[in-house]
Specification:
Blueprint lengths: L6 H5 L55 H5 L9 E5 L9 H7 L4 E2 L9 E3 L5 E2 L5 H7 L1 E5 L18 E3 L19 H11 L3 H8 L6 H15 L4 H37 L2
Parallel strand pairs: 1-2, 1-5, 3-5, 3-6, 4-6
Helix pairs in contact: 5-6, 5-7, 7-8
Length: 270
Amino acid sequence: MGKKNTSNASSSRANRPRRGGRAQRHKSARTSQQSQSLSSFPEDSAKPSSIIEDDSSNHSSGSQTTTHERTAGRPHIDVPVAMWDFDHCDPRRCSGKKLARLGLITELRVGSRFRGVVVSPKGTLVVSPADKEIVVRDGVAVVECSWARIDDVPFSKIASPHERLLPYLLATNPTNYGKPWRLNCVEALAATFYITGFDQHAETLLSSFGWGDSFWKVNGPYLKRYQTCASAEEVAVMQETIIAELQESYETSRREKGSYFRLCVSISHI
C-alpha cells in the first residue's frame, strides 16, 4: 500500500485556520515488474529425477498466510483435491502449499487413504478420460516426492486403488519451463483435471499463479489429443505417437539445418 506524503502538510499546519480544509493526501503509485527466463524445449524425452517437483513462482510469499489469500473469493472446486506432502521441496516455493493457503487443496496425513485418482510415481496406468467417474465421486490427489528419496516414502501407508502416472506433458513453471514430465504440484493436478474433462477445475487452480495460463498454451495440443482417448491404454499409445512425431520433427529440422550449412559452404568456395 502506498505511503502518505505528509511533509508539506506538517510544515504548514501552524499557518492554517483551525477549521480550514484538510491537506491534500497523495498516494504513491504502485509499480510492479515481473520477469521470467524461459528456457527452450529440451531435445530429449528422458524423465527427470522427480515426477512432481514443486516450485511456485511466488518466491516472496514464503509460508506466511495473508488475509487476502484467506478471504479472496475464488471459484469453488466441487470435488476433493488433496496431497501428501513429504517436504522434499522448499516450503517457500511449493505450489501445493500455496494452494493449501488459498483453501484449494487439503493436506493429508500419512496413513490417510484417498479413494480418488492419485498422481503417483508408483502408478502403473496413465490418467485417462476413463477416470472421470472416479474424479467426480472421489476427487484427485498428488504425492509430492523426489525419485532420489523414493525409498523414504511409505507408499504402503498412502496406497490408493487408483494410482496414476501422467502422460507426456511439458512443465511451464518458471524453474522447469519446457522440460518434459517435470511438472510441479499444481500442474500435475491441472493435467489430471484437463484429461478427465474438468477444464474449469484446472483453470481455477492455475489461475492462482502468474504463469498458470502458459500451461494450456504449451500443452493444449497434447491435452486435446489425450481427451479423445477412451482408456489408459489409448492414452499410452497416443503418448508414444506424440513423442515419435516430436522426434521426427527434430530430425527433420536438423537435416534441413545441415543442408543449409552445406549450401553456404559450397557458395563460399565459388
